[in-house]
Design a protein that fits this description.
binds heme C, two-stranded antiparallel ribbon, 15 helices, 482 residues
Length: 482
Amino acid sequence: MTHRRHFRPIHAALLLAAVIAACGGGGGGEETPLLDAEGCTTGAEPLPGESAFCRGKANFSNRTLAGLGANGRSCADCHMPAESFQLTPATAQARLATMTATGVDDPLFRALDADDFRVNGAAAHDFTNLNQNGLVRVTIPLPANVKLLDCGATVPCPASARATSETVADIWRSVPSILDVRITGPDGLGPVWPRGANPSGGYQLDGRIDTLQNQALAALRSHAGATIDPPAAFLDDLAAFQNAKFSSNAVRVLANAMASGVSPLPDPEPALDPLEAAGKLVFDRACGQCHGNQAGHPSSSVPLLLSTAGTPTGIVRYHDVATACPRPVDNVSPPRFDFKPCSASQMKNVRTYEITNSGVAPSGTPCGGAAPQPPCVTRITTSDPGRLLLTGYPAPGGPGDIQHMDIPSLRGLSRTAPYFSNNTAATLEEMLDHYTQFFKRVQVQNPAAPLLTTKPGVTPPVIDRPFTQSEVPALLAYLRKI
Ligand code: HEC
Ligand code: HEC
């Protein structure tokens, strides 16, 4: 088989050489460029005449970004190709150790992603969030009705705390994989969220960006410090590259089928052994309503379609699964749910926000009455307000946006630890421990929640959706396979 694999690159090399010659670029005596397994040249800059995919691939890893006035970072500094295009805390730690030992600059460590950047500016050098948590600063403007309070990361924030003049919030987020992004952006399907950017799903962990081009532009400006915007074609090339990267060939086949409107869609599921197949049934029951994976749009990032048989009517697009810090604590003894507390370095990312709901836009609803009306002033203490920062819409008692995040795809999960938007679950086991507590808490808050029953409308409610501890081995086996 190995000699067959060598054929494609050689053919591609000849083809490329011919293209270059045809374009008048092939001066006498030039060597045929070396091509990688995807048929692309391996230099820092793409060659003219290469495909959009190859140009995008080269620029994804291009630290120079000539002409953009950037800070030496490439997309690949965070979305590391060797790590399924994400970043782990262990690798960040190893890279910092190498930089310290060798003195060779690593552009991952730029002052703007240091914990102390707001205090020390260009001299900032405390990389605790990158190192210990694998988290990167994401700066989001505050909606007009949302203020940060002056109690810093103190929990609880004293009642005497006052609003600061800050106009942006620094949120610390994990670097998601870019695999499968072709089918995890806005999908135009229900369920549709009632407010804010991209009501049918979007890019970023909170779904705030609509296209890969706009995503790349935002990344170049913020993470790579570009002072000049690139031409549109540059962004198209980056999108072409990312749109062709998948966690498996089966997902590639699915994406192609979706693009050409094939029905029914092919199932991207790998062959499952009996334990994994048992796990899939548990997954469909306990997780599938949010993480999809059945019928319609099997990307694992779209909630079940409301028309799917047995689907409760309460399914929504964006969710708070209590991943932000601090974790909810039950005030009843013994506690009815018991989340693992966040680490000290995660707790440093907590801030308290004050949301003023005047009943006019952006929060838009009357306030001060009984639920589901939100109160007129809400204070929340959290490491990540989620979509609240896009809409300013609070709402205990109603479907507010506090801590609401987009649903990620779970394809290729075994290769993308740690998990959650703040990397708070180191392993799949820890991730499931979190969901065990999550389901218990949902039951305390709302025992009739559609999330908890496969038999909506039955009284008293039949709580049969959460997975049981004896189902964990099967569920883990399935999650490791997809
Ligand atoms: C400093 C680290 C860093 C760099 C450099 C970086 N990213 Fe990201 N990327 C992130 C983080 C963190 C997020 C999640 C941000 C959020 O949700 O608010 C993200 C999100 C994304 C997403 C969204 C994925 C999804 O599933 O919604 C895409 C696509 C992406 N980046 C592409 C790029 C491209 C293209 C570049 C280069 C132009 C780039 N990134 C540079 C850290 C980085
Ligand atoms: C109520 C909707 C909902 C249910 C039910 C649900 N999830 Fe999630 N899941 C989400 C949302 C929203 C996120 C993003 C939150 C975050 O990362 O902070 C998420 C994130 C995840 C992640 C992190 C992915 C990554 O790459 O970091 C994993 C893994 C996951 N869920 C697995 C599961 C499993 C397994 C189940 C069933 C036991 C489940 N989920 C049930 C909504 C849900």
